């Protein structure tokens, strides 16, 4: 039985994610998988949140309305 490219891509992203992901990151990953987002979309969303955390200098779940406006 031949597996689809989409399944293979999802397998790639699942194995490339760190196993020590924090609870917020893990929840985001789980939610994206449940919604069956494309692997590239998942990669992009994780990258954006990582950059936002870098901008804030702290976890994104502590962001205020003012942080979002900046």
Automatic annotation (TrEMBL):
Chain ranges of the Core-binding (CB) domain: 19-70
Is the keyword Cell wall biogenesis/degradation assigned to this protein?
Answer: no
Q: Which domain of life is it from?
A: Bacteria
Question: Could you tell me which InterPro entries the record lists for this protein?
Answer: CB, Integrase_recombinase_N, Integrase_SAM-like_N
Biological process terms in GO annotation = DNA integration
Q: DNA-binding: present as a keyword of the record?
A: yes
Among Pfam families, the record links this protein to: Phage_int_SAM_4 (PF13495)
- Which keywords, in A-to-Z order, does the entry hold? DNA integration, DNA-binding
GO molecular function terms attached to this record: DNA binding
Q: Which PROSITE patterns match?
A: CB (PS51900)
User: What is the protein's name according to its record?
Assistant: Core-binding (CB) domain-containing protein
| Organism lineage | Bacteria, Pseudomonadati, Pseudomonadota, Betaproteobacteria, Burkholderiales
């Amino acid at each position: 039985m031949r597996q689809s490219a989409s399944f293979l891509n999802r397998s790639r992203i699942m194995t490339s994610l760190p196993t020590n992901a924090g609870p917020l990151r893990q929840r985001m990953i789980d939610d994206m998988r449940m919604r069956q987002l494309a692997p590239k979309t998942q990669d992009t969303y994780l990258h954006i949140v990582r950059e936002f955390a870098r901008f804030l200098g702290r976890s994104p779940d502590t962001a205020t309305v003012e942080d979002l406006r900046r």
